[in-house]
Every structure is written in C-alpha cells, then in structure tokens.
C-alpha cells in the first residue's frame, strides 16, 4: 500500500482557532483528571500516610512493571454526582502489566469517604470486571473499604450490575480459570470483606488489614460487647485461625511484592493470535488532529485526514471508495496490528450502510479486529434515502456490527447521534472498549445540550470507558488490541439479512 497524502490545511487562522478551542476542552478535562488522581483532600491523604500506608496510586505504581502504562477505565465516573466525592467514585480501575502479564487492577481509595461504595462505585467495579472477563485478565483487587454507603443502597444492593454482580462475577471468572487475587490493606467491612473472601488468593497486611462483616463499633452498638479489631477480624487471626487469608504481609510494599510473585505463578500468558508487524509512525503527525477535528456546530472533519494521522505509515487500503461515501472503510495497521477501520463521514445512506455491512463481514471472515471512528449525525432521512431502502440496509449494518465476533473498539471522534450511534458499535453493541475524544458528542438527537451530549457527561455516567486525546489514541488502541489479541477467536454467526 502506498502512503496517502494529506490535503488538509494545517496552518492558518481557521486551523489555529479550531486547535485553540480543542485545547480549551482538553485542558478542562485534564483538570478533572487531576482532581480524580489526587483522590481525597489533603487532610485525608496525610491521615492515610500517617499510618505508614501508601496512597492508592502509589500502590498501583509499585505493583506495575517498571515503565508499564496504566490504562484507566472510568476515571471520571460520578464526577459531580456525589457531594464531597471527586471524579472516580472512590475507586480506581484499569489495565496494567504486572510481572509481564496484563492484569485488571481494582483499587479502593480510602482517602475518599473511607473507600465506601456508592452506586457508581459498583457500576465502575462491574465494568472493570466485564472488561477483564472479556479479555481473560487476572483481577487484582486492592481492598480498604467501609462497605456500602447506606443512603445510596438502592443503587448498590438489589439489581443486576450492582454489588451482587461484583461477587457473582468474581466466582464465575474464577470458575473459568481467570485468577482473582485480593490485597487487604486496611479495615474492610461488609461487602468490603466479602469481595476479598471470594478471591482465589488473599494477601493481608499485618496490624493494618482487617475483614469483618460488622465492625467493632457495630458489634458494640448491637450487643454492648467491646470487641478488639484484631481479634474480631485482624490479619493474624485470618491467616492463622479462620484461614480466610493466605499470605501475611508486613506492610504495603511487602503485600505488593507478594502479589507480583503470585502473578508470576499463574502459568504462561496467552500468545497473540495475530502476527504483529513492526510499528511505523504516521507520516502526518497525530498532534495535527487537534486543529482538524469537528467541534460543535461545525461541518464534519474529513475521515481520510483522520485516518492518515492514526495508521502506520499513513497507508490504508480503502474498500469501495466511490460507493456510499458517507462511510469510509479501509484495512490498515495501527502500531503493527492489522485492523479494519469503519469511519463515519456524514449521514449514513443506504449505500453506506450496505457497504459497511459488507466490509464488517470481510473483517470477521479474516479475523481482523475492527476500529470504528464515529462521526455521524445519524441515518439519512429524505425521499431519496427512502427510495434507497435505508431501513433495510441500515438493518444490515446493525446486524453486522452486533454479530461481528472479532475484537471491536469504538472511538467517537466527532458526533454520534441517533441510530448511527448504535450501528457504528455504540455501548449496547458491546465493543471491547468505547473511547471518546474531548470534542466528541453523543446523544439521541443533534440538538441535545452540551451538558448531556458532551464527553464529560458520558464519562461521568460510565457510558464510555475513557476520554483520550487524539495524539494518544494510537498507543491506547495498541494496548487494547494486544489484550484482545490474547483471547481465542470465536466462531461467528449472523442474523437474518433482509435482501
């Protein structure tokens, strides 16, 4: 394949104005990420450290292999939804490499409300588990939680996808041989005690970690009995008497070292099922995308100009370039991984939908993962479109996206509205991951206000996994493709296509 040249103007007033607007969006989102990374307030962090404990993100850094990236899932979950709770919902979840193996890390943040769980906490926990299950990643859960935040119990206790699902998912993954490892760093009550107890192996820190269904304070309130925390559920008791814990650590650092040793003995990591070529940088810098992407109220960006700044060597093999031009389909490589790219380039016509379904079928037949670059206002709605059987061909695209049993990663790069959001592999169509650029908007209608359609709202509701800057997209896609490529291929099947 020959490199595709770029015709985009990357200098001049229009480009600089658009880039400045994008930078402002990205800076505002980065401020929220910084808020999430800080965790609890300064007083809470200092109190935590005064006990000789590492902060939650220090625990993550100490566990990961040196220089390994950490792809955080749901970092902005629950932003502005609970008083006194920064973005993140008292939890940190993400994928990182431990002892040479990708693992899912699920980490309570005790500096925020004592690590208690809100409705969005359980939703984030479950989303992390589902990602781990889909990619067969070992789960390492770092526990220090006061259990459920009782005023929010209706969003924690009764339904599927809430606290009970956390426990169900643990034991079902364990039954499938997906390792479940827990590290108990501090007092963990009620659900905070069940979660580690359901893991395959459990590490607990001496004189810090404790697990009990009812805390000493609760025991006293209920019975009048004064119970010693260590005797009731301390580390030594659980290692020597109850047998709930398997490994006694001296401190946080020792617990993390033990966890790394446990991961080393999980057997051989799965091999990639695809051949990965040597990665090449695009000929056109990805940083230029900040001045090329669609911002609210502007025309769509040229999908080809986005693709050449994301794919290796700026080369791609386009499929049906003269047909259904509001959907661009192409084979290319991203960081050495071969992918099929389905890129929205306007309202989806009947021809575009039929082309997209055809291209997805080809990708599935060849076991090539799909990357959806979404920028579409919806399906075309005109007399001409109706004559072209948009409903019939649109159904084909929906069918193909739903039944494509190859890894699928969706990146909303502009707008995703109406049924086009679903047809281009929205959340309900279960992509391996759904990402958004800071400028992205998604809603049932293009008229939805920014506070509903904007990327921040989608991230706070956990409707997307992460907001990613355009220049970081290649690296994130490579990490996700590597994880997906270590799962076995699945035999595909198709629903009825209306001819």
Describe the structure in your own words.
The protein has helices at 13-38, 42-50, 56-63, 119-135, 163-175, 191-197, 216-223, 229-233, 235-242, 252-264, 303-308, 350-365, 383-387, 390-403, 418-423, 450-453, 455-460, 473-484, and strands spanning 70-72, 91-98, 101-108, 139-143, 180-184, 187-189, 201-205, 210-212, 247-249, 316-319, 327-334, 337-344, 370-376, 408-417, 433-436, 441-443, 466-467. With 499 residues, it is of the alpha/beta class. The chain folds into two domains: 39-264, 2-enoyl-CoA Hydratase, Chain A, domain 1 (Alpha-Beta Complex), CATH 3.90.226.10; 286-484, Alpha-Beta Complex (2-enoyl-CoA Hydratase, Chain A, domain 1). The strands form three sheets. Strands 10, 11, 12, 13, 14, 15, 16 and 17 form an eight-stranded mixed sheet that branches. It has a seven-stranded mixed sheet with strand order 1-2-3-4-5-7-9, with helices on both faces. This is Methylcrotonoyl-CoA carboxylase. One of its GO terms (biological process) is L-leucine catabolic process. Pfam families: Carboxyl_trans.
Main sheet record:
8 strands, mixed
Indicate how many domains the architecture comprises. 2
**Beta-strand residue fraction:** 15-25%
Name the CATH superfamily assignment of the largest domain.
2-enoyl-CoA Hydratase, Chain A, domain 1
- Any low-confidence stretches, pLDDT <50, length ≥5? none
Task: Assign the CATH class of the largest domain.
Answer: Alpha Beta
> Structural class from helices and strands?
alpha/beta
């Amino acid at each position: 394949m020959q490199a595709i040249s770029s015709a985009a103007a990357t200098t001049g007033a229009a480009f600089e104005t658009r880039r400045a607007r994008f930078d402002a969006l990205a800076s505002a989102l980065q401020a929220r990420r910084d808020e999430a990374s800080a965790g609890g307030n300064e007083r809470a962090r200092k109190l935590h450290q005064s006990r000789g404990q590492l902060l939650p993100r220090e625990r993550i850094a100490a566990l990961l292999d040196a220089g390994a990236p950490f792809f955080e899932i749901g970092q902005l979950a629950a932003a502005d939804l609970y008083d006194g709770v920064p973005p993140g919902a008292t939890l940190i979840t993400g994928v990182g490499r431990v002892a040479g193996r990708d693992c899912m890390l699920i980490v309570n943040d005790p500096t925020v409300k004592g690590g208690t769980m809100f409705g969005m906490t359980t939703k984030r926990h479950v989303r992390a588990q589902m990602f781990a299950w889909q990619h067969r990643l070992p789960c390492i859960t770092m526990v220090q939680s006061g259990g459920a935040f009782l005023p929010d119990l209706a969003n924690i206790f009764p339904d599927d996808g809430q606290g009970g699902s956390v426990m169900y998912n643990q034991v079902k993954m364990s039954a499938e041989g997906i390792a479940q490892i827990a590290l108990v760093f501090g007092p963990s009550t009620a659900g905070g005690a069940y979660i580690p107890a359901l893991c395959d192996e459990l590490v607990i820190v001496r004189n810090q970690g404790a697990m009990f269904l009812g805390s000493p304070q609760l025991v006293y309130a209920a019975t009048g009995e004064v119970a010693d925390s260590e005797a009731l559920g301390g580390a030594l008791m659980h290692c020597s008497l109850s047998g709930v814990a398997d490994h006694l650590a001296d401190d946080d650092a020792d617990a993390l070292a033990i966890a790394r040793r446990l991961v080393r003995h999980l057997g051989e990591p799965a091999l990639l099922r695809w051949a990965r070529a040597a990665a090449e940088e695009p000929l056109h810098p990805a940083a230029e995308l900040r001045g090329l992407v669609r911002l609210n109220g502007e025309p769509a960006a040229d999908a080809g100009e986005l693709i050449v700044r994301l794919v290796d060597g700026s080369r791609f093999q386009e499929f049906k370039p003269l047909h259904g031009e509001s959907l661009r389909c192409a084979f290319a490589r991203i960081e050495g991984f071969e992918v099929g790219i389905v890129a929205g380039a306007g309202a989806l016509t009947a021809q575009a939908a039929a082309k997209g379904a055809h291209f997805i079928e080809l990708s599935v037949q060849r076991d090539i993962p799909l990357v959806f670059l979404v920028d579409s206002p919806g399906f075309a709605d005109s007399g001409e479109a109706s004559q072209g059987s948009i409903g019939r061909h649109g159904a084909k695209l929906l069918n193909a996206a739903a039944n494509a049993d190859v890894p699928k990663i969706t990146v909303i790069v502009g707008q995703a509205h109406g049924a086009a959001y679903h047809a281009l592999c929205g959340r309900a169509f279960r992509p391996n991951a759904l990402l958004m650029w800071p400028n992205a908007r998604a809603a049932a209608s293009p008229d939805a206000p920014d506070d509903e359609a904007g990327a921040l709202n989608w991230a706070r509701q956990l409707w997307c996994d992460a907001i990613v800057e355009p220049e970081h997209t290649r690296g994130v896609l490579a990490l996700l493709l590597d994880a997906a490529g270590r799962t076995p291929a699945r035999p595909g099947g198709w629903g009825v296509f209306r001819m």
